[in-house]
């Protein structure tokens, strides 16, 4: 038999049979289980019972298989100032070409500042 409170096995010659008012027989394995049953404690709220362990997923590590996770995919999106094609074009350009472009832009800005100072 199984104890109604703890769900542990009750070996022959041990435990008590308690008959509830509604006539339902309840097997209790220990005086602790009997005391808690008479106090109307819920087995799910007592940490040492099997009901609590089942609720809180304890002791299932060997039966559970590894959970599969979905891999995240990297997606490129268009930004406010640039379309997706422009971003891809920039990414495919060589580093030297882009650094040359940057230098040219800097030179242009400097020239503009010089022209403004001369005026």
CATH class of the largest domain: Mainly Beta
The proportion of strand residues reads 5-15%
* Major sheet: 2 strands, antiparallel
Distance between the termini: 103 Å
The dominant shape is: rod-shaped
Share of helix among residues? 25-40%
Instruction: Please tally the β strands and state the result.
Output: 2
Uncertain spans: none
Put simply, the count of helices is 4
Instruction: Examine the secondary-structure arrangement and name the CATH architecture of the largest domain.
Output: Roll
Average pLDDT metric: 90
CATH topology of the largest domain: Ribosomal Protein L24e, Chain: T
Describe the structure.
By secondary structure, this protein is mainly alpha-helical. The chain folds into 2 domains: 62 residues, Ribosomal protein L24 (Ribosomal Protein L24e, Chain: T, Roll), CATH 2.30.170; 35 residues. Helices cover 39% and strands 7% of the residues. The protein contains 4 helices and 2 strands. Strands 1-2 form a two-stranded antiparallel sheet. β1 and β2 form a beta hairpin. The longest helix is centred in the last third of the chain and has 24 residues. The protein is rod-shaped, with a radius of gyration of 38 Å.
